[in-house]
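Job type: complex structure
Entries:
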Amino acid sequence: MKTISLSIIIFISLSVIFGPLLIPYDPYEMNLELIRKPPSWQHPFGTDQKGRDILSRILYGGRISLSVAIGAALLSFSLGFITGAVSGFIGGRLDMLMMAMVDLLMAFPSLLLAMAISVVLPQNIYTVLIALSLVGWAPFARLIRGYVLTIRDEYFVQAARAIGASETRILLKHIMPQCFYLGSVYMSMKIGGFILSEAALSFLGLGAQPPVPTWGGMISSSRAYMLSDPWMVLFPGLAIAITALSFNMLGDTLQASKKVP
Amino acid sequence: MAFYIVKRIFLLIPLLLGITFISFVILKAIPGDPALIMAGERASAEDIEKIRRHLGSDRGVIGQYAGYILMLLKGELGRSYFTQKRVMDDILEKLPNTALLAMAAMLIAIPIGLLAGFISGLKNGSTVDRVISGFAITGLSVPVFWIGLILIYLISLQLKLLPPSGTGLRFLLLPAITLAMPAIASITRITRTMVIETSSMPFIKTALAKGIRPFRLYSVHIMRNIIIPVVTVIGIDFGSYLSGAVLTETIFGWNGIGRFTFEGIMKRDYPVVMGCIITATVIFIMINLFVDILYHFLDPRVRLEKDSRL
């Protein structure tokens, strides 16, 4: 399972990074003679309503969709990691305030809150990244904070304190590295979810605007042609599903190998 | 028991205040006059003046926030930019449709998820288990809106079995299946995990040793122990069903608050979007409160634990 999902992830990443260099078609170039052509040897995934090659749009779109999704996961992780660790370590009022904030964010249906934030932000490729991160850091913060609470009175912390390490040093050198593994496993479990959220938001027309390709956006713009040309909807959806599936499978194996809530 | 419920309801107050605060901040982030935004672009001068008075544009941020809460308390979510109708009226009109869709989806998802999870968990490690688990993780990974489109293509357009879009009982099945898909997957997964965990407990061995009939073992002994986590997962996932409703209703042209939200997003009709999201969040919180209270009836252990903490 782990090998399969990892190889699919590597395959997708390599095709998204290097694929556009190998493909002879420009994802933006319109060709009136090639409007909505079914899959063929020249265009394995067919062409869209503006005569653009769907495969190259999926590869370019993958660059954007995957960078946004993984970027949002990384940003959520960093924000949550820092706030969670600091909040759990310092405790007291700050901790109460931070956790009230976390509880509040988690009281919203997360994708709906991300929609609300995306709507008011200026629309560009960073919109979805920012919206997903503003919502997504809360569960990370709660997880890391909980873990810090369990380790902050351990012997190694007391020992560091006994030899005169400053509180900042204890937090940075002793507590944070301890949490890093847990946090990164949790993040890899969540990437599949970030990919689906990015797809949903770009399907709703939030974030990167046409003609910039995103996987969700491609599905949304080809919906109208579904009866006559179903491949236009089929391939971008498969790209989302396979990518999310391999990340979710990887997450499952990681979860099974290491107990993570 | 009654005390616990009252306490939980009181605890909602700070949460609701926080939620209105976040929605207030988002509303403030929209460029333009908040009163104009609440009133809608083509509102009469009186309306705008009235809302301005309510919001207290001259009163500083805290005063404005207080005004905003007062308006919300009166059930006033503002007016649509385009139709000039009160957002609240539209939501009340569309909410029953969304509730119907959500119920139908749950009616599909809960039995299938429980059954699949049970089979998978009892046959842990077998081929059946692997197939079911494979389906479950796929169900969590496929975008809801894409499943919807594929179903429309196959069932409505190719096989012509069901109509593709509209509102009403005849149109209910396809969107309900779409919305149920991720729910089936997550219910299957939690049920499977819990069945495996429960089956290895000593009291199951005791029951088996005493010659219990399999049906009674599953329906009473195991079921009682997995019901809480399953209900919890349904409660927590309800938020994602609400987001899923935005996509599903849009695709199937179902006249509920999900499609209303989508239309609001497309037209940048801010009062509509914010009104829908506040409504959805309140529903989400209520459902989770209900789930918490339900625990008390389902599991006496929770009752003892929580009561001793009071």
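Summary: Chain B is about 80% helix and 0% strand. The radius of gyration of chain B is 23 Å.
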